[in-house]
């Protein structure tokens, strides 16, 4: 049976209220960073129980500014997982530092914490753990390693707004925590990001850096740094701020739908995601591990004929052309789990607009493969 309606891999849920909030901004004439941006920052602070949040133009910008603010640059090393979206490595390159890749655990797709200390050298300045696909890392263990070795921590929580480790929100453990507001995330501004700072001083620095290095002194603009234009517009902030009001309901719905997948997919050729009791999942991606790479590729093609959108989950970053040419690492030998996750990983649709019938239809197609 072919579903007559195409089921995309992701589809933002933009309501009439969201649209009306954007229209209000358009009618106001105040389109750039303003009141709606400040409202968004306050909503995020309240949601994850922190004090210092800056809205930026995208998730990559948030991590870039975090590295800049920490003074990380040429000659420094930053430890990152080998498996993530390429932006995690790119921001390290952008500041002139060297990404040091560490393999992942296949059970979580997160960095293998047992391998972090072996990657630390006298040049190591920071760790960027990634809460991959929305599943919280064990931040207790990561922070213990960072504190022991006097390292900064920038949490790449792009997919994980609302995920918890030991009842504390991810993004609030390290020196900085980065969230993305891309359309594949639970809530979206089209492009956008939120950066959590540990201290007021750090937050003020980020707000200066995002706006051309400007500080206001006695009502006058003073350019104190060579900053960036990483501002979020009030148009974007109004769009995502309206969605923020129902974020808890969105995450609950995604958890419910993920549970349905867990119960409905029975094909032993596909390994389902695994969840621990102390780390919660926001289900930005429902990521299967296929028996072989050939099966993953044929499954993508088969599901396309059934009107189901799928894709690879993330990249084995050191195997991508730029990093392979620059660092020439034996990525299969050094990062076997990242290699497997990249070659055999499959992302299938999971978002709040899906129905139980959609989940059943997708599951049934996978079960027939």
TrEMBL record:
Active site residues of this protein: 185 (proton acceptor)
One Pfam family named in its UniProt record: DegT_DnrJ_EryC1
Keywords: Aminotransferase, Pyridoxal phosphate, Transferase
Segments crossing the lipid bilayer: none
Classification via Gene3D superfamilies: Aspartate Aminotransferase, domain 1, Type I PLP-dependent aspartate aminotransferase-like (Major domain)
One GO term (biological process): polysaccharide biosynthetic process
Highest taxon in the source lineage: Bacteria
InterPro entries according to UniProt: DegT/StrS_aminotransferase, PyrdxlP-dep_Trfase, PyrdxlP-dep_Trfase_major, PyrdxlP-dep_Trfase_small
GO molecular function list: pyridoxal phosphate binding; transaminase activity
PTM annotation (N6-(pyridoxal phosphate)lysine): residues: 185
Family: Belongs to the DegT/DnrJ/EryC1 family.
Protein name, UniProt field: Glutamine--scyllo-inositol aminotransferase
Native species: Putridiphycobacter roseus
């Amino acid at each position: 049976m072919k579903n007559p309606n195409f089921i995309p891999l992701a589809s933002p849920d933009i309501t009439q209220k969201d649209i009306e909030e954007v229209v209000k901004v358009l009618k106001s004439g105040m389109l750039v960073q303003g009141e709606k941006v400040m409202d968004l920052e306050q909503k995020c602070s309240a949601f994850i129980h922190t004090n210092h949040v800056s809205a930026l133009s995208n998730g990559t910008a948030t991590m870039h500014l975090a590295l800049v603010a920490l003074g990380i640059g040429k000659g420094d090393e930053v430890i990152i997982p080998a498996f993530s979206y390429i932006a995690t490595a790119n921001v390290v390159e952008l500041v002139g530092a060297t990404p040091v890749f560490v393999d992942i655990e296949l059970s979580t797709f997160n960095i293998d914490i047992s391998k972090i200390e072996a990657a630390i050298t006298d040049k190591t300045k920071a760790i960027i753990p990634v809460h991959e696909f929305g599943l919280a890392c064990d931040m207790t263990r990561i922070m213990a390693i960072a504190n022991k070795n006097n390292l900064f921590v920038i949490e790449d929580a792009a997919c994980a707004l609302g995920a918890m480790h030991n009842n504390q929100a991810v993004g609030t453990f390290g020196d900085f925590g980065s969230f993305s507001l891309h359309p594949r995330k639970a809530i979206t501004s089209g492009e956008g990001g939120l950066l959590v700072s540990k201290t007021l001083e750090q937050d003020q620095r980020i707000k200066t850096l995002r706006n051309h290095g400007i500080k206001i002194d006695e009502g006058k603009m003073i350019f104190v740094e060579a900053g960036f234009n990483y501002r979020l517009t009030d148009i974007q902030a109004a769009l995502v701020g309206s969605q923020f009001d129902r974020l808890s309901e969105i995450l609950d719905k995604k958890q419910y739908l993920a549970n349905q997948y867990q119960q409905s997919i029975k094909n032993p050729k596909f390994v389902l995601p695994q969840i621990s009791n102390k780390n919660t999942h926001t289900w930005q991606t429902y990521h299967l591990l296929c028996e072989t790479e050939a099966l993953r590729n044929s499954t993508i093609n088969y599901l396309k004929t059934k009107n189901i959108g799928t894709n690879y989950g993330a990249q084995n970053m050191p195997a991508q052309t730029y990093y392979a040419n620059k660092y020439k690492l034996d990525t299969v030998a050094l990062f076997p789990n990242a290699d497997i996750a990249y070659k055999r990983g499959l992302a299938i649709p999971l978002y709040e607009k899906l129905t139980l019938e959609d989940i059943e239809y997708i599951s049934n197609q996978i079960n027939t493969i």
